[in-house]
Design brief:
The chain is of the alpha+beta class. The chain folds into two domains: 3-62, Arc Repressor Mutant, subunit A, CATH 1.10.10; 73-123, no CATH class. The chain has five helices and eight strands; from the N terminus they run αααβββββαβββα. The protein has helices at 3-17, 23-30, 34-46, 86-96, 135-141, and strands at 51-52, 59-62, 65-66, 73-76, 79-82, 100-105, 112-118, 121-123. The strands form two sheets. A five-stranded antiparallel beta sheet has the order 5-4-6-7-8, covered by helices on one side. The chain has a three-stranded antiparallel beta sheet with strand order 1-2-3. The mean pLDDT is 89.
Amino acid sequence: MTDGDVRVHLMERFLAEGRPPSVAESAAALDASEEDVAAAYRRLQEQRVIVLAPGTLDVWMAAPLSAVPTPFPVETERGTYYGNCIWDALGIPAMLGCDATIAASCADCGDPLPIRVRNGELRDGDGVAHFAVPAARWWDNIGHT
């Protein structure tokens, strides 16, 4: 079992079930020990491929997917997923190669700002996406250096 095997399994399960697999679930599916899979999860976090919930081996994020509800729900023909931010929310239909509706809202006033992606293009969306923190600094801000 390689870290790549774990990564592929994690993403496939996340997409199929709408949640990432636990270490135990991944170990059983990959016919590997929980210790080996736990070590792979830690290495994937060190490589900034996934983010584990603080103090656990529970996958919190596997970009562009969030394991917890966020203000960026993405409805697709395969199911509803959550993006970690608007950038990730736009990445979900790109990753899946499908149409989507993102139920975004204005961070200032809360007004709905639905965004539709059709055939790989933005439709029916107005607004500005602002990234206040560069991606490299964002990672440091959640306590992973």
